[in-house]
Amino acid sequence: MKRIHVKEIDETKESLLMGSKRINLNYYPICPNPELTVGVGRHSDVSTLTILLQDDIGGLYVRGNNGSWVHVPPVSGSLVINVGDALQIMSNGRYKSIEHRVIASGSKNRISVPIFVNPRPCDMIGPFSEVLAGGEKALYKQVLYSDYVKHFFRKAHDGKNTIEFAKI
Ligand SMILES: O=C(O)CCC(=O)C(=O)O
Ligand SMILES: [Fe+2]
Known about the structure:
The chain is α+β, with helices and mostly antiparallel strands. The chain has a single domain (11-166), classed as B-lactam Antibiotic, Isopenicillin N Synthase, Chain (Jelly Rolls, Sandwich). It has helices at 11-18, 85-90, 129-132, 145-154, and strands at residues 20-23, 26-28, 40-43, 49-54, 60-63, 69-71, 80-83, 100-102, 110-118, 124-125, 143-144. The strands form three sheets. Strands 1, 2, 4, 7 and 9 form a five-stranded antiparallel beta sheet that branches. It has a four-stranded antiparallel beta sheet with strand order 3-8-5-6, with no helix packed on it. Strands 10-11 form a two-stranded antiparallel sheet. A hairpin with a 5-residue loop joins strand 5 and strand 6. It is elongated and about 55 Å long. Bound molecules: 2-oxoglutaric acid and fe (ii) ion. InterPro entries: IPNS-like_FE2OG_OXY (IPR044861), IPNS-like_sf (IPR027443), Oxoglu/Fe-dep_dioxygenase_dom (IPR005123), Plant_2OG-oxidoreductases (IPR050295).
């Protein structure tokens, strides 16, 4: 947490960073024409961090710096860690949530298990005071985390647009 000037994770910070967790079990059946369908549309997670276990099929892509899609090949025994929107907001943009999508396989079923580590629904999230202490301008306002999540689920996946909801 050095990069965001947080020296101690007290109870408040613990709640904001990891006060609630959600685990999903995703099953992507074989798709005869993967190019004609969407596995999971492009989005960034609303979490602080996502810890993702994927099987050996592949199909997860992240958005690279130049806008291209980069495949995240499964590595046996490894976990994928993705930064989510809540950490982008609380770090005032120092950490950027990653846009990603999933393309189903034409020949095999795929399973993935993401653990979303989140603030609690009742937490107000915004840039940490430690980050703004030096006079830095806040890029995001304080939002109720449950409102942020509701906003995400109210609409179709639309890349990194969800975070506009918290922008000043
Ligand atoms: O299946 C995957 O690899 C990722 C799924 C995902 O992005 C999500 O559940 O938010
Ligand atoms: Fe995701």
